[in-house]
UniProtKB/TrEMBL annotation:
InterPro entries: NAD(P)-bd_dom_sf, Sc_DH/Rdtase_CS, SDR_fam. This is 3-oxoacyl-reductase. PROSITE patterns: ADH_SHORT. Keywords: NADP, Oxidoreductase. Signal peptide: none annotated. It comes from Neohortaea acidophila. SUPFAM superfamilies: NAD(P)-binding Rossmann-fold domains. Gene3D superfamilies: NAD(P)-binding Rossmann-like Domain. It holds the Pfam family adh_short_C2. Belongs to the short-chain dehydrogenases/reductases (SDR) family. GO terms for molecular function: oxidoreductase activity. NCBIfam families: PRK07231.1. The lineage of its organism: Eukaryota, Fungi, Dikarya, Ascomycota, Pezizomycotina.
Amino acid sequence: MSHTRRFAGKVVFITGGTSGLGADTAELFVQDGAKVFVVDLQERDILSRLGSDNAAFRKCDVSSPNDCASAIEECVKQYGRLDVLFHNAARLSPLANVVDHEVEMFQQIINTNLCGLFYLSRAAIPQMRTQGKGAIVATASTSGLAGDYGLCSYNAAKAGTVNLVRSMALDHALEGIRVNAVCPGYMITPMTEAFRMEKHVQDALLATIPMRRGADPKEIGRAVLFLASDEASFITGQTLTIDGGWMAKSGCPNFMELFGGQA
């Protein structure tokens, strides 16, 4: 439990907020004093976890601009303000190259991961503008910073998220609205369960991470709270990579191991 209550009196809108990173981050915000308005495709007992006095839930498909606008409107109507937008809802693409990727599925991945941020920000920023202050945090990914085999639509969506964050940060800096992204590496969430179902896949994945483990969602969530808080008041247009050292590698093999510890 936070002793500072950084978000006392603040309202946080969270997408993809009933499981994984979204749910854990919602819990962290509530512990830090916020009221949270959670949207997702399913409720998944999130209100019993957070407490109905601290949270509200609405079903919302973030790939729909109308759903996004009406959800933001309902949040402001219920709580009277909107201080933080955390866009976390995502879909992982099927493993396919561009030739084999279904066009409709490609569009769905882009709509959920990237366009959802656009739709929600378009609806939320006017309210933040009237308040003279606001923070937007998006869940991007290391997959938005480099390419992955077979994840062309997910890579495209997350790379677009990174640059949309930069663009919005520039456009709204003088309005007191900060826009940033977190770029998680491998996280232990329901979305990545397939990687853990096959031991050889899990082993191969962990072998590429210098810290040799995946992230607990709360490790990412704490970074989201930092970026949304006044402690990050001079930070905007940034992507915070949280990946156990994944993106620090050049791609070269470990020469220390190959040469038996000899330089």
